[in-house]
Amino acid sequence: MQVNNLQTIHEDPHFLVLEKPEGLLAVPGRGPDKQDCLSTRAQARWPDALVVHRLDMATSGLVVMARGIEAQRTLSLAFEERRVHKRYTAVVAGELVNTQPDNGWNTINLPLMADWSNRPMQKVDHEQGKPSITRWRIAPGHTVPGTTRLELEPVTGRTHQLRVHLQALGHPMVGDALYAAPDQHAMANRLLLHAHWLSLPHPLDGQTIEFHSPCPF
After folding, report:
1. Domain 2-83 falls in which CATH fold?
2. Does this chain's domain 2-83 share its CATH topology with 86-193?
3. 176 counts as catalytic
4. Which residues of 126-143 are buried (b: 16+ CB within 10 A; e: fewer)?
5. Phi, psi at 212, each rounded to 5°
């Protein structure tokens, strides 16, 4: 269902799952030119819709919004307690090899913090960074030579976490204006990062429910 140019994946009296397109802010930014965003569009249709989490502007895919303050508290707690699980599809520069048996999950454990002299960028910092964990494995699907398609699962939820962690491995995401080299940025007309799967406890009864979004690239 399309509402105000948004695709609605799920709607009930307690929460929404929306598909955020690439290039749209998740929440309003600073300045009058940055007020059009996913949350504003959603609230035009559902006045009780409240923000629970975000995606980067350059990232597409599944976003949850609560309906009402009680659902927001319940869902926010589920995020804090890591009972919400998200997976992303990304295409990275270079050929990344999975040495785990049967394409098992690999773990990136690198602490992250803001790169204050290069805002809004983030960086790995082993002394002052906050604990940050990402899991990855090879994803099915076509990629051009010299790139690798990955499935990513953030265990923590730091700003730009997936993008910085893959850059730190030496495999920045294709199309990334912040963290990729100019030639890697130019390989695509958008950041190749999409939130394709989401699992969460329903805020009313706690039953686990899953959502899927086809990868657009």
Report:
1. Pseudouridine synthase (3.30.2350)
2. yes
3. no
4. eeebeebbbbbbbbeeeb
5. -130, 150
For 160-214, write each residue's pLDDT tens digit: 999 999 999 999 999 999 999 999 999 999 999 999 999 999 999 999 999 999 9
Catalytic residue of the set 12, 33, 48, 56: 56
Given CATH 3.90.226.10, say whether it is the number of domain 86-193.
no
Rounded CA gap, 92 and 171, in Å?
A: 6
Please give the pLDDT value at position 33.
81
Q: Is 45 helix (H, G, I), strand (E, B) or coil?
A: helix
**Residue at 170: amino acid letter:** G
Q: CA-CA distance, 161 to 195, in Å (whole number)?
A: 13
Low-confidence ranges of the chain (pLDDT < 70): 1-4
**CB-based burial, 66-89: b 16+ in 10 Å, e otherwise:** bbbeebbebbbebeeeeebebbbb
- Going through the chain in order, the beta strands assigned E by DSSP cover 2-3, 6-11, 15-20, 49-51, 60-67, 85-93, 106-109, 112-114, 122-124, 133-138, 147-154, 193-201, 208-212
Residue spans of the domains in the chain: they are: 2-83, 86-193
Q: What is the pTM of this model?
A: 0.94
